[in-house]
């Protein structure tokens, strides 16, 4: 929950913890009493950088949320909606100098709203990563000497976020590739580098199962797995709604055998069929033409 607040409000670890001390909306979201003490910011930093490596953590969190929804009486119906979302790899999101440039510009913008004093922005476009880090540290040192900026919360938050970004870049900028990510396709002419999250949710928009794969995997291959995981989490399933990707022959057979109604537009291969190996055209070398399975020679050569 702390990490979610951090992402939503663009705060550093220090500031998200500090704001949680006095902001009642944060306290409410964190399910804390007004007088309850918050965690130390270093604990959040450690969790954010190390994370948990348990492969079953996602399933455990979803199962807990489903159980909570059932106990509160908000999980109704036996219809699942299935789909897949795309997640970009961290590798091609931002280069270190690009994210440092972005964070420094946020400081300049925040300070410009307070008075007419213009902070000279950083120019990191033509720098190497090491040069960008050195310039960013120098820029940060100059800012920390200006008491008027440190006394303004909106500017101080951006400065702390910039400081945290420098520390993150120092520890991770040597990582040059995400070995697990793969190239997937959103459309015929649009690709992405990252992962796919295959999700199942009920009509109340509560996620009941999830499977994370590399980006090149097909959406429809994980329908049975999503249904089984949803059932393991205590969800009854008698209807599944999905797009054309889920109307493969294997999925149709699985749902038929399991007495599940699959609502999905049929793929043209299902409607019109595809040629089997023994029905394929053969090339007649002597005639220089193709022969159909019935033995008829092609009428002409296409140019």
TrEMBL record:
Q: What region holds the Transposase InsH N-terminal domain? A: 1-49
**Transposase IS4-like domain ranges (all copies):** 179-283
Q: What's an example Gene Ontology biological process for this entry?
A: DNA transposition
One example of the protein's molecular function in GO is:
transposase activity
Q: Which Pfam families match?
A: DDE_Tnp_1, DUF772
Mind telling me which InterPro entries this protein's record contains?
A: Transposase_11, Transposase_InsH_N
Query: What name appears for this protein in its UniProt entry?
Result: Transposase
């Amino acid at each position: 929950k702390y990490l979610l607040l951090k992402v939503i409000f663009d705060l550093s670890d220090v500031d998200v913890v500090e704001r949680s001390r006095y902001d009642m909306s944060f306290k409410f979201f964190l399910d804390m009493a007004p007088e309850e003490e918050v965690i130390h910011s270093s604990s959040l930093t450690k969790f954010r950088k190390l994370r948990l490596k348990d492969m079953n953590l996602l399933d455990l969190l979803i199962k807990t949320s489903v159980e909570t929804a059932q106990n509160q009486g908000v999980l109704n119906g036996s219809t699942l909606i299935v789909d897949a979302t795309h997640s970009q790899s961290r590798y091609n999101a931002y280069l270190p100098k690009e994210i440092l440039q972005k964070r420094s510009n946020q400081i300049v913008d925040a300070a410009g709203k307070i008075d007419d004093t213009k902070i000279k922005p950083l120019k990191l476009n033509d720098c190497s990563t090491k040069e960008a880090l050195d310039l960013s540290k120098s820029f940060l040192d100059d800012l920390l000497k200006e008491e008027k900026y440190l006394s303004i919360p909106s500017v101080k938050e951006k400065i702390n976020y910039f400081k945290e970004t420098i520390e993150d870049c120092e520890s991770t900028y040597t990582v040059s590739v995400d070995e697990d990510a793969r190239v997937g396709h959103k459309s015929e002419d649009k690709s992405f580098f990252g992962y796919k999250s295959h999700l199942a949710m009920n009509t109340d928009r509560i996620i009941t199962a999830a499977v994370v794969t590399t980006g090149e995997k097909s959406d429809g291959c994980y329908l049975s797995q999503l249904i089984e995981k949803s059932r393991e989490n205590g969800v009854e399933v008698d209807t599944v709604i999905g797009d054309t990707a889920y109307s493969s022959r294997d999925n149709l057979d699985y749902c038929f055998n399991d007495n599940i109604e699959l609502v999905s537009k049929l793929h043209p291969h299902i409607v019109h069929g595809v040629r089997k190996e023994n029905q394929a055209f053969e090339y007649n070398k002597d005639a220089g033409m193709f022969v159909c399975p019935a033995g008829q020679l092609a009428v002409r050569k296409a140019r």
